[in-house]
Amino acid sequence: MLPGALQGSPSTAGTQSPGAAPGQPKAAGLKPPSEETIVGHELSRDGFAGIIAFQRGSGNGLEIARLLIAGEEISRPGEQCQVEVVAGTPIQTRFAGRPNGVSHYEVEIETCPFSLDVLEGAVLVTRTPKTCDFRAADCRVDPAGLWGPPGNAIGPDQTKQLERERGRVESAMLAQFHALLKSAGKDKEAIKQIASEQAGFSSEREVICRNYLREDFHGFCGLRITQARALALQTAFEDRTKAKAKPARTRAKLKPDPDPAIQSKAKSE
Predict the structure, then answer these.
(1) Helices 220-254 & 156-183 angle (0-180, nearest 10)
(2) Diameter of the chain by CA atoms?
(3) pTM here?
(4) Where are the alpha helices (DSSP H) in the chain?
């Protein structure tokens, strides 16, 4: 099992979200997973296909030291193939902030650019369109999905730990959801959108995790996707709270100062 891949979930206790006033909904302070949980480890898409390995580069940036993507032959669909995209010279990644609560990186590979989110001991790769054609290798690949530890390397002890962690993570996600929903107040459109997105989460998680090796046994993929969802909800809550507080601060700044002549007259009286 990859070190760090099965660490305990972030604490949901204690920290009040920025800008939350007394009596307003609060969301616990979850922390984004560290890149150190993926650096120096080989991860595979769906726990069995291909290899992606990260290392620290100059300036402590994140580099891809190796990238092997599995796919199928272009000329003979159904026949398996694989492409060594990165071997020898590392590929730099570009940090693009944490728009959804976790570290987001852009990977500029000419034939197959993609983006990734850093989860705990895993990365979630996204790309549009999903497939890339490496015509010289006669191989069409799909890098999208969860890249994590080999599914057959997660044993009974780790599975029990994941099971204990799952309850805490599910509770944290629901707490973030209810805080975000309450922060919408009487905004019916916002409430509808928040509820709709949460209702669709389970099916989205199923699509991402259904092919992860031995997922029914250990549930690693589902747990990491749920953690990411909790962080995304927390970020949405914090953004909404800050947006509500900003107009009040703006009005306070725009309040005109009293007329100096009036101030002087008031003092003389």
Answers:
(1) 30
(2) 95
(3) 0.81
(4) 156-183, 188-209, 215-218, 220-254, 260-268
- Judge contact between 237 and 180, C-beta under 8 A: yes
Terminal C-alpha separation, the chain: 81
Q: What is the 3 state secondary structure string of 31-79? A: CCCCHHHCECCEEEECCCEEEEEEEECHHHCEEEEEEEEEEEECCCCCC
Mean pLDDT of 218-224: 98
List pLDDT tens digits, range 163-176. Answer: 999 999 999 999 99
Q: How far is it, in rounded angstroms, from Cα 168 to Cα 78?
A: 41
pLDDT tens across 123-138, in order?
999 999 999 999 999 9
Least confident span in 113-117, 184-188, 227-231:
184-188
Of how many residues is the chain composed?
Answer: 269
State which amino acid sits at residue 226.
Answer: T
Give pLDDT, residue 244: 83
153 Cβ contact list (under 8 Å, min separation 6): 1, 2
Question: What are the Cα distances from residue 103, in Å, to 39, 93, 161, 257?
Answer: 14, 12, 25, 44
**Which is it for the CA torsion 173, 218, 51, 138, positive or negative?**
negative
The CA R_g of the chain, rounded to the nearest whole Å, is 24
> Which of the pair, 231 or 8, is modelled with greater confidence?
231
Q: Note the pLDDT of residue 196.
A: 96
Q: Average pLDDT, stretch 45-55?
A: 97
